[in-house]
Amino acid sequence: MRREWWKNAVIYQVYPRSYGDSDGDGIGDLQGIRQRLDHLQWLGVDAVWLSPFYPSPMKDFGYDISDYRNVHPLFGSLQDFDDLIADLHARDMRLLIDYVPNHSSDQHPWFLESRSGRDHPRREWYVWRDPKPDGSLPNNWLSVFGGPAWTLDEHTGQFYLHSFLPEQPDLNWRHPEVKAAMFDVVRFWLSRGVDGLRIDTAHYILKDPDLRDNPPATGGVAFHRPMGEYDRQLHLYDKGHPDAHAVYRELRGVLDAFDPVRQAVSIGEIHVFDWHEWATYYGEALDELHMPFNFGLLTVPWDALAIRQVVNAVEAALPSGAWPNQVLGNHDESRVASRAGPLQTRVAMLLLLTLRGTPTLYQGDELGLEDVPIPAGREQDPWGLQVPGMSRDPVRAPIPWQDVPNGGFCPPNVESWLPLPADLAHLSVEAQRRNEGSMLHFTRRLLALRRLTPALREGTYRPLDTPEGTFAYLREFEGESVLTALNFTGQQRQLALGNLPTGTVLLSTHGEREAVDLTKFTLRPDEGCVLVLRGG
Ligand code: NOJ
After folding, report:
1. What is the rounded end-to-end Cα distance, in angstroms, of the chain?
2. 390 with 223: CB under 8 angstroms?
């Protein structure tokens, strides 16, 4: 089989509420994305992952779906979706959609039917349990977004399970009809031409069938950042049940059988930080998810040693033949420019686009956007409203396209659903396109370099011994050696790479550089370089 397209691809995440607003309601939509495809093509990405655009009461901004087979009128229509995919394909880009299998909206007809009576044929499509004899909750499980994971339905006297909001009841994947219906959803979108799925909270779909209580936590945090009450438990039983593997093997079969030529890809959101357990989602015979998202780079402080260690740990845990992937941001995480600091945004982009594996770029990271402060009264995220400090609003601010009021995202006279970044004069796409030295141009050059350099796409990964505060690695392929050297500090750092031949700098975060003698190679403060080694 020819090399799968997604191994060569760079994926770009579009959060539809915040990309482009074509109808002037302050919320982005599918036509608004279509109007911005020139940007994506000019930038040089290969595939778009589109966050949810389905009908939804928007309690969790689209991750609460009330119809899996349609488009929310806020975002447009199925025709708009078909037009978007046709436009992307015409530009030789692919489309991945967000598939949300763990839960629907409480307004989905399936749930309305399920909750209508204990004897309804759809009752078992969700997870219902009697209260304990004393009337209390069925067990101690907690919702990720705060509070218990159970809500009582007064009408039928039973609790239903929701790993997230009460308005996001968990589907019961142990029920064969649920699985069949949800696989049909996949076929529906495949038949409209989608090229793959990003699978939301993929490791949540199956839980302990006996619903055992989670034991108390022995310390540390459940996720990679503190989550309050949720951290007090060890989440042994409420997610990550091994029965999910069989589901993902079957799902893989659905994708492969639908159209083997298309090679639709499955990428699972798996927040598991025991890398050996994480790697099991590739499947023993590499027959489950094509890639579980690797959130390693999001879990560590912005520090050369910590980054090197996590990159190496993930590499070491990969099953033989499994294809890696890299992530530095998404719609749930503080932006990399805020985590790493503005001086390190280019180093971060170099890291993301030169490590081994398929990178996923979050919209706006190509502009070096930082988290946007949200004024009181304009908060939107239910998580942040429920658990202080957890708001994801700052990373979901609309994209600034031009230096005009509302940044060209929506008309100047309407209020955008979240505020835009300030400093449009420097940050907007238009301003950065005018400036050859901008982050945007840097990202574009890097994407072009990756496309033209087989070692960066396909090469092996070999970390090198370098001084504290730096991280350097070789990517080698068919006689070509490419070196990435990154300085994570604000001081100059000399690298002693005397055993390597001379290198020619292909790209530096700091502009032009001469050919480099690697015996006395000095990285400037906050500098990152990609070099091709001569005679290597
Ligand atoms: C993960 C998604 O990325 C996040 O935005 C959402 O709130 C939860 N899953 C629940 O669907």
Report:
1. 30
2. no
Among left, alpha and beta (phi > 0; psi -120 to 50; other), residue 200 is beta
CA separation (Å) from 445 to 19, 30, 438?
A: 23, 28, 11
Q: Dig out the tokens for 508 from the structure.
A: 């530096």
Identity of the amino acid at 242 = P
- What is the DSSP secondary-structure string of 482-493? EEEEEE-SSS-E
Q: Does the Cβ of 106 fall within 6 Å of ligand 1?
A: no
Whole-number Å distance, alpha carbon 525 to ligand 1 midpoint, is 37
Interacting residues of 471 by C-beta distance below 8 A, sequence separation 6+: 304, 307, 308, 351, 463, 485, 486, 488
Taking CA 322 as the corner, what is the angle to CA 321 and CA 323, rounded to the nearest 5 degrees? 115
201 lines ligand 1 (CB under 6 A): yes
CB 252 within 8 A of CB 210: no
Mutate to test the pocket of ligand 1, among 200, 381, 386 (most ligand atoms within 8 A of CB): 200
256 labelled catalytic: no
The finding on whether 49 has its CB within 6 A of some atom of ligand 1 is no
**Low-confidence spans in the chain with pLDDT less than 70:** 1, 222, 535-536
200 pocket-lining for ligand 1 (C-beta < 6 Å): yes
Pairing verdict, β 470-477 and 480-487:
antiparallel
- The residue whose CA is least distant from atom 6 of ligand 1 is 63
Q: Which structure tokens are listed for 536? A: 């290597």
The alpha carbon of 48 and the centre of ligand 1 are apart by a number of angstroms equal to 18
- Could you tell me if 374 and 339 are in contact, meaning their C-beta atoms sit under 8 angstroms apart? no
Task: Note the pLDDT of residue 536.
Answer: 45
- pLDDT on residue 105: 99
Structure confidence by residue, pLDDT tens digits, 438-458: 999 999 999 999 999 999 999
Q: What's the rounded Cα separation, in Å, for the pair 391 and 374? A: 10
Residue of 107, 100, 106 lying closest to 68 (CA atoms) = 100
* CA 103/CA 160 separation, integer angstroms: 12
pLDDT at 516: 82
So what's the pLDDT on residue 511? 87
Concerning whether 29 is annotated as a catalytic residue, the answer is no
Helix (H, G, I), strand (E, B) or coil at 197: strand
